[in-house]
Fold this sequence. Notes:
Layout: H1 2-29, H2 31-36, H3 41-47, E1 55-57, E2 60-67, E3 74-77, H4 85-88, E4 91-92, E5 96-97, H5 99-103, H6 105-108, H7 116-123, E6 133-136, H8 140-150, E7 155-160, E8 167-173, H9 178-181, H10 186-198, H11 220-229, E9 237-239, E10 243-244, E11 253-254, E12 266-268, H12 269-274, H13 278-288, H14 290-299, H15 323-329, H16 340-351, E13 362-366, E14 372-374, H17 393-409, E15 422-431, E16 434-443, E17 447-453, H18 462-481
Parallel strand pairs: 1-6
Antiparallel strand pairs: 1-2, 2-3, 4-5, 6-13, 7-8, 7-17, 9-12, 10-11, 13-14, 15-16, 16-17
Amino acid sequence: MNRSIGRVGAVLIVMFGALFVNLNVITLLQADDLANHPANRRLIIREYDIPRGPLVVGEEAIASSVPTDGELRFLRTYPEGTRYAHLTGYYSVVLQRSGLERALNEQLTGRPTEVVAQNLGDLLGGANRPGNAVLLTVDGEIQAAAEAALAGREGAVVVVNPRSGAILASYANPTFDPNPLSSHDRTVIRDAWDELRERDDQPLVDRATSELYPPGSTFKLVVAAAALERGFAPDSLFPDEAVYDVPQTTADIRNFAGGRCGADPEITLTDAMRVSCNTVFARLGVELGDDALIRQAERFGFNRAVPYELPTATSAIPQELDVPATAQSSLGQRDVRATPLQMALVTAAIVNGGQLLRPHVVNQVLSPEGQVVRGPNEGLWTGASGDARPLSARSAEQLRQMMIEVVDTGTGRAARIDGVTVGGKTGTAQAAGGPVVWFVGFAGEDAAIAVVLPDEGEGATGGAVAAPVARQVLEVAARRTAGR
């Protein structure tokens, strides 16, 4: 009998010990994870007692908190509505957070891990102190120009400063109004959410960073970079053919207009870029080989997660390509995919002398007292090898000059701006739903751009459709960045 009681006692001791350990693990080790878990709404309810810090563009708050008389003490508002929606995201009692509201939640609530003093202040009773202000790198006039240039059409515009990697504009259509989603009325929130989710045009998707498109002939910049790095020159000559007979397949490659690209039997690399000669770049890609093409794309950031404050899709090129796939990939077709952000970064690397920079949209985080909590997360975007230079300074300058030729006398003439040095590359990719048209380029040394329009209909080209959009934005960007 005593032995049985002892066994029961031993089991109870073990069970109480396990319970004690489990409670301590939850309390001490998992408390933060559980508190911040998306399913735990108590945290976000508690956050409504805090005057959340603003998101600021220039001197304008594009997201701010206003006091209310309700149970939730502060309401998040977005004065510009749709213009910055994919950047700001929403702050919702039902849907919780998205965009920068989610990515920068610690900073906006005034509890950043970078500032121990603020955390200590929370512990000492200052938990309701105002949150930090987040100053963005976005230029309000350039963002407005991107919105106006797209004019309600499906597509995206990204503008980046090639010297720093700062995002000057990031706008995508269709867009949405975050104000109803941030209401305190749960019925309003759910109705607005259901309407957005049911729309076929997917306004919640940020086409600037989260949608992948075939880059078309804008990818010829990557092919040209690989060629220049391997000893080719801007004046290197190639056969000017109406048709390139691709090895190992009967699917030959033709030029856009169906004929040859020039009047002579041979054409230079510069002129092939200027008129976007498919047969030359398909041949060049095959000559370089799939490994060289893939490695060059990866040096520009393909097949790598972008180090950005917001979630982004990863631009990609297959790790292995047979000869026909290499030829087609050299034209930005087949399985090559890129975001507008990625192609803007490729262009920026060419402009700044061959360095790949980390994109960033946060310029500063300021405490309520005006002290700098943190600065921009700028710097080089290094690969696994630690290298952040996709191409040499010499190759970058040669490629930059080739892009200027594209705009001066080639397919990108619609992007010309009087008195401003503009370079670029047009692209028209064939996709299942019709052509996807592109323009990537730069104005001066302080603004690189990528424009994509995926739904312009048959016959649309990058030169005719995307280049004018880029010109409209770059005119404002050139004026705004002059002298910076």
